[in-house]
Design goal:
Shape: globular
Structural class: alpha+beta
Radius of gyration: 25 Å
Number of domains: 3
Helix content: 25-40%
Order of helices and strands: EEEEEEEEHHHEHHEEEEEHHEEEEHH
Strand content: 15-25%
Distance between the termini: 68 Å
CATH superfamily of the largest domain: Chloramphenicol acetyltransferase-like domain
Length: about 400
C-alpha cells in the first residue's frame, strides 16, 4: 500500500515553492510526521512531514524543482525500512524523472539539514571547507562539531572502498569560479529590496547615541532580570520601547502608503530583522507597544531561535508596521538600511565603541553607537524623521523617559 506525499498549504497567497532538499532517501524508514523534505517559499523554509509511517518510496521531483500546493512529490510504501528502494514495474513509467542523488565527491555541497544549518550558523563554520561523513558525503552535526574543535572528521567505518577519482594538479595562483543557483528566498529578498529602491523616495538620517545609561542599567539588573523572567536583558527591548515612544509621537513613521491613501496604525507590529541560514528574514512581534521589557525579550529570542532552526511560519512573517535591524551584532559601524515594503521606515542599529565626546566642556570617553533611520520621503518629511530619531536617542540616553512616556 502506498501513501502520497503532497505539498502542504503554505500560507495565504502562497501557491508554489521550491523543493530545497530531500531529508530521506528511497528505502529509508520514516516515522509518521517525521520531516522528509524541505521546501523553500518566498519567505521561509517549510518542512514536509511524512503523512504515514513506512518506507520512503519514489521521489517524484528533483531538488530545485518548483512544486505547487497539493502536488504529489513522493510516495511512502508500507514496511519497516529496507536498504534499497522498492522496485518499480517496468511497465509503469514514473511520472517524473527520479532524483539523481549526488556522489560523495560532489555532496559536500551546501544542501544541509536544518539541524546542521543551525549549527553551522551558530559556530561560524564554512561548510564548504568541512568534509562530510554522512550518506553521499553530506555534512553531519558531528562533522561540524569536529571542525569547530580544529579536527578533521574521519571517514565512516562502514563506508565501502571506492576508486579515487582522478585529481587535477592545483595550479599555483590559479583562479576558479563557482555557480550556485539563488534560492527562492534570496531571489525574493533581491526583488523586494530593489522594488523598494525603485518605488520609495528613500532617504536616511543619522544620529549617535551615548549608551552609558542603558549599559549601566543592564549591568545592574541583568542577573535579577534573568532570574525573575527566565530571559536575558538585552539592548533590543530598550530600542523597541524607545521606537514605540517615537512612533506614537510621529505616526507617519509607522504608516504605509496604499494607492493614493495613507494608512495610519494605532498599534506597532515590530519587524525584527534576523539572520537565518538561507538569508535575512523579518519576523514580526505583534502589538509590541503593549508589551513589557521581559515579553519583548522573550518574543525576540523565540523568533531568533526559530529563524536559525528554520521553523518560522508564514504567519510569523506577515504584516509589520516598522522594522529594527541590528547590524551591530556583525560589527557594522554605519549603514543605510533599506525599508521593508510596504513599511515606510526602518531603524538601523550598529556596533558600540568607545569614542571621545565632549561633556560639560570636557573630552571624555563614552560607549557610542550610530543610529540610522531610513524612510520613505513620499510620506515622511525630513523634520518628522529627524525628530523621531532624536526622540529615540534621548530615550536611550535617559531611559527614565521610557517609564514616564516623555
Amino acid at each position: 500500500m502506498s501513501t502520497e506525499v503532497k505539498v502542504p498549504t503554505l500560507g495565504e497567497s502562497i501557491t508554489e515553492a521550491t523543493l530545497g532538499q530531500w531529508l530521506k532517501k528511497p528505502g529509508e524508514a520514516v516515522a509518521a510526521d517525521e520531516p522528509i523534505a524541505s521546501l523553500e517559499t518566498d519567505k521561509v523554509a517549510v518542512e514536509v512531514p511524512a503523512p504515514a509511517a513506512g518506507v520512503m518510496g519514489a521521489l517524484l521531483v528533483n531538488e530545485g524543482d518548483t512544486v505547487n500546493v497539493g502536488a504529489v512529490i513522493a510516495m511512502i510504501e508500507a514496511g519497516s525500512g529496507a536498504t534499497t528502494a522498492p522496485a518499480v514495474p517496468a511497465t509503469t513509467p514514473a511520472p517524473v524523472a527520479p532524483v539523481v542523488q549526488p556522489t560523495p565527491a560532489a555532496s559536500a555541497d551546501l544542501t544541509l539539514s536544518p539541524a546542521v544549518r543551525r549549527l553551522v550558523l551558530e559556530l561560524g563554520i564554512d561548510p564548504t571547507k568541512v568534509k562530510g561523513t554522512g550518506k553521499d558525503g553530506r555534512l553531519t552535526k558531528e562533522d561540524v562539531l569536529t571542525a569547530a574543535k580544529g579536527g578533521t572528521p574521519a571517514a565512516p567505518a562502514t563506508a565501502p572502498a571506492a576508486t579515487p577519482a582522478p585529481t587535477v594538479p592545483a595550479v599555483a595562483g590559479g583562479r576558479r569560479e563557482e555557480r550556485v543557483k539563488m534560492t527562492r528566498l534570496r531571489q525574493t529578498i533581491a526583488k523586494r529590496l530593489k522594488d523598494a529602491q525603485n518605488t520609495a523616495a528613500l532617504l536616511t538620517t543619522f544620529n549617535d547615541v551615548d549608551m552609558s545609561a542603558v549599559m549601566d542599567a543592564r549591568n545592574r539588573y541583568k542577573d535579577s532580570f534573568e532570574k525573575k523572567h527566565g530571559v536575558k536583558l538585552g539592548f533590543m527591548s530598550f530600542f523597541t520601547k524607545a521606537a514605540c515612544l517615537a512612533l506614537k509621537d510621529f505616526p507617519a513613521v509607522n504608516a504605509q502608503i496604499q494607492g493614493d491613501e495613507i494608512i495610519y496604525h494605532d498599534y506597532v507590529d515590530m519587524s525584527v530583522a534576523v539572520s537565518a541560514p538561507n538569508g535575512l528574514v523579518v519576523p514580526v512581534v505583534r502589538n509590541v507597544d503593549q508589551l513589557g521589557f521581559a515579553d519583548i525579550e522573550k518574543a525576540i529570542a523565540d523568533l531568533g531561535k526559530r529563524a536559525k532552526d528554520g521553523t518560522l511560519t508564514m504567519e510569523d512573517m506577515a504584516g509589520g508596521t516598522f522594522t529594527i535591524s541590528n547590524g551591530g551584532i556583525f560589527g557594522g559601524l554605519m549603514s543605510t538600511p533599506i525599508i521593508n515594503p510596504p513599511q515606510s521606515a526602518v531603524l538601523g542599529l550598529h556596533r558600540i565603541e568607545d569614542r571621545p565626546v565632549v561633556r560639560d566642556g570636557q573630552i571624555v570617553i563614552r560607549p557610542m553607537m550610530y543610529l540610522a533611520l531610513s524612510y520613505d520621503h513620499r510620506i515622511i518629511d525630513g523634520r518628522e524623521a529627524v525628530t523621531a530619531l532624536k526622540t529615540i536617542k534621548e530615550a536611550i540616553e535617559d531611559p527614565t523617559r521610557l517609564l514616564i512616556d516623555l
